[in-house]
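Worked Example 4.2. Consider the chain below.
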Amino acid sequence: MTLTSTDFNFPRQNAPVYHGKVRDVYSFEGDTLVMVATDRISAFDVVLPKGIPYKGQVLNQIANYFLDATSHEVPNWKLAEVDPMATAGVKCEGFRVEMIIRGYLAGSAWREYAAGAREICGVKLPEGLRENQRLPEPIITPTTKADAGHDENISREQIIAQDIVSEDDYSLMEKYTRKLFEIGTKMAADKGLILVDTKYEFGKHNGKVMLIDEVHTPDSSRYFYADTYQQLFNEGKPQRQLSKEFVRQWLMENGFMGRPGEVVPEMTPDVCKAISDRYIELYEHVTGKKFVPAPDADTAARIEKGILDFLKTR
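Applying the procedure from the previous section yields the following structure tokens:
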């Protein structure tokens, strides 16, 4: 059973539900919003046609785990988890930039490097790097945040010159990005994982820069298993990883990269279950907790009740 869309109508709701790639966002009078993490899955900036069992719960609960673990260092939007698939928080004015930080050369950065690029988002890279190699130090490679279609690489200098984000705010976002990555790297290492790369989103509330959206989930992050990293790297073999990259690889092997005219390959029940199993595996690895599926007899009604109960407290 998957939940791929919601369309609730709540008291004091002051805007229609916003359907993002994965989350449904409900906005309320005052400064409150609720994000419902659905079971939708996207890759190459395309929402795929089938939902993934328990994906929304995994995303929501991993994000909350890290929001709670980092709030002493970086302020964030969270107020309460109102359902295993939904979180309430303060409404922020989001910056039109996603902060991507990379500790290793992997994924899209590797694909660009292998194609000849030696500079990504204004950051110069040395010759002779190999896929999945640890970088001398983590690099920040931001992208513009698109309402639809593909996000685009952009440099720090372009962001400031184009007044997308002020220099002061961007400097703070960089500081927060590095601090979050440092904490996430340590928490991953404690669980036998390597946090390879990840992305963060920030916004402003009452003049204060805050972390918003998800943190260190498999949708926003890539993890390698630490115990086999060095041997596989030395042998030039693919890394064992917990991330959405295996979904992208499966799509690419079947001729899909989100380009015009390409068709998403069939997502069979076995494919969907395999993806679900990976998400659950990552949840258990990064949190150290056993995954407990929420009751799914009527998921939508359960979420609606959780949100209504929360609204009574506001």
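Residues 32 and 90 are 5 Å apart (CA to CA). Residues 167-190 form the longest helix (24 residues). Compare this with Example 4.1 before moving on.
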